[in-house]
Amino acid sequence: MRDLLPSLDDWSTTDRDLALATVVRTAGSTPRPAGARLLVTRDGRMAGSVSGGCLEAAVIQEAQATLAGESPPRILHYGISDELGWEVGLACGGTVDVFVETVRWNGSDPVLDAVRAALVEDRPLALLSVVEGEHAGARAAVAGDGRWIGSLGDAACDAAAHGAASSRLASGLAGIEEIAGVSVFVDPIVPAPRLAIVGAVHIAIPLCRMANAAGYSVIVVDPRAAFLTEARIPDAAQLIARWPDDALPQLDLGPRDAAVCLAHDPKFEDPALAVLLRSRVGYIGAIGSRTTHGKRVGRLREAGFEEEAVARIHSPVGLDLGAATPAEIAVAILAEVVAVRRGRSGGTLSSRRAASVA
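The structure corresponding to this sequence follows.
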């Protein structure tokens, strides 16, 4: 939704109703994930994408039929096994369900007003939409503080929806939930996950660049102002020239965030790890060999940290890619950060497919 905000604001000044198509369910190999959206006007203007191109023409036609009042809010099913799937070119082998509805982005819908405010102010909010049944098209929202806005058309569903919204806000992943017998698409609108890097060393430069491209908001912490410059690290969202045990508590890193210690110096990393191990941060990495990490573990135990807490640290940091250069090491680190966030081991996809077929 965030990428559609400029078009929603612009087009709604002249178009009372806009059609919104949302990927609500996928299976197999598909070009776009759940939550991908396509915005369509009566005259055929479009923004966003639900398929990377192969479904757009068919979805635009359906969206304009919805705008014309010819069709109600509904799910469109596309798959390789369907004649229409072949016709529109969904040749990647998966299936896609796209929910098409109309929206009025002009201040008349309190739920959409709350969505816009959350996007502009970068605050968490879950948008819930009924996608099937008699209340298809009904929507509600749950703010990060638990405040409820709107209705899904069913009191029992409204009462039970908070748990699903909270779970999706924590994961940051959109998807359909069956709530009190109602199919509800829950789309978490959340700030970008953060990656805190302790140590403005040479590896931090490509890691910042790659993490930024992957959608992370990167923060680099290092008290050495000479190393911590925008000219040297241009891709960081924030540079903090303070000691890590002073800076990190202010960041309040959460389960969707990650932190990596790259300083390779106990006077930087020990205070940083002491803060991180007491935090809710979802990933903690520290550079260094197994020998270096063994010494680090010993210092942390002496500082009073239990084995379970110390085990949260990924070190040697990164996936085993055989990385040698700073850029390759940055790839390995970011790959592990993403794998941990998504609950994966980081193995090869080809091996995974082979195992599933066997």
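The chain has two domains: 2-189, 194-341.
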